[in-house]
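Q: I'm writing a short explainer about Peptidase M50 domain-containing protein for a general audience and would like to include a description of its predicted shape. Could you first generate the structure from this sequence?
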Amino acid sequence: LTGMADAGTAAIFPKLPLGILRQSTLAGAIIESFLGTGTLEIPPGAEQQMIGQGIGLHPFAIAGFMSLIVNALALLPVGVTDGGRISQAIFGRKGKSVVGAITLLTLLIAGVSGDDLFLVYFLFVTVCQQGTEIPMRNDVDDISFVRVLAGTASVIGAVLVLFPIQ
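A: Of course. Here's the predicted structure. Afterward I'll give you a sentence or two in plain language.
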């Protein structure tokens, strides 16, 4: 929708800053596939001048971008989020605690090193999403290999969405 808009319509599209659009490798690749390669590139030495410049995107594209980020955060294996439930199904209760602690530590390190999104999500998960999970109906039997692959693919997809463009 963004690429097919005429000049008059494109002029009134909301602009998202490059700094926000570059926070996701996967979403950035999707945007560049529609708007052209190099759309999100920042030339060396021009980081400070260009980071606040915006790119006009259709409101549906902005909603899609934000939903990718929100769903990727929900798929991280921490707390009682969707990712926490997936990790409990794959690793069990003890394994979920270990994977969750590693993920929380990674979120904290990424947040302290400069990514505000991860720091805010770390605080949110620590305060609001810690608790006991609703027990599964069948906690004894192992899950199928196909479900393990689906859960692993979900986490890999979430990491691709959350990994920033370098």
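A: For your explainer, you could say: The chain is about 60% helix and 5% strand.
Q: Perfect, that's easy to follow.
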